[in-house]
Amino acid sequence: MQNISKLIILISLLVAHSVDAAVTITDAWVRENAPGQTVGAAYMTLKSADESALVFVESPAADSVEIHSMTMNNNVMKMRKLDELPLKAGKPEKLAPGGFHLMLFDLKKPLKSGEKVDFKLCFKDKAGNITHQMVTLPIKAPN
Q1: Which stretch of 73-77, 113-117, 129-133 has the lowest confidence by average pLDDT?
Q2: φ and ψ of 27, to 5 deg
Q3: Where exactly are the structural domains of the chain?
Q4: Which of 8, 84, 94, 130 is placed for a possible disulfide with 53 were both Cys, Cβ 3.0 to 4.6 Å?
């Protein structure tokens, strides 16, 4: 009986730690794309309890999803693929139009307002452990 009590306490601690280490995802949405476009974009705010990084994203809606940054320099837009997006402990990182975002390539079908898109986001903590979060994001027309 004592071993069962110890096991229950250990499992409770592990579950509590994994909840604390989770990344909170808010303000998440996917941009409706124009007819004929085969690319799309997704936005959200990520907040990690601990220092970590977004390292990989996939979606059944696209052949590939990349983490991108976008900057304007002398009226020239520069977009580049990132290997990972660092997340500082407790500091929200906003993925929004004109900045960091997720690019969806070779869409399987058009992204229509009112529908939803599933994503699997993979995060790496400082120790190198990988965790996955499944999210479903609404598709919205840009403002």
Answers
A1: 73-77
A2: 50, 40
A3: 2-140
A4: 84
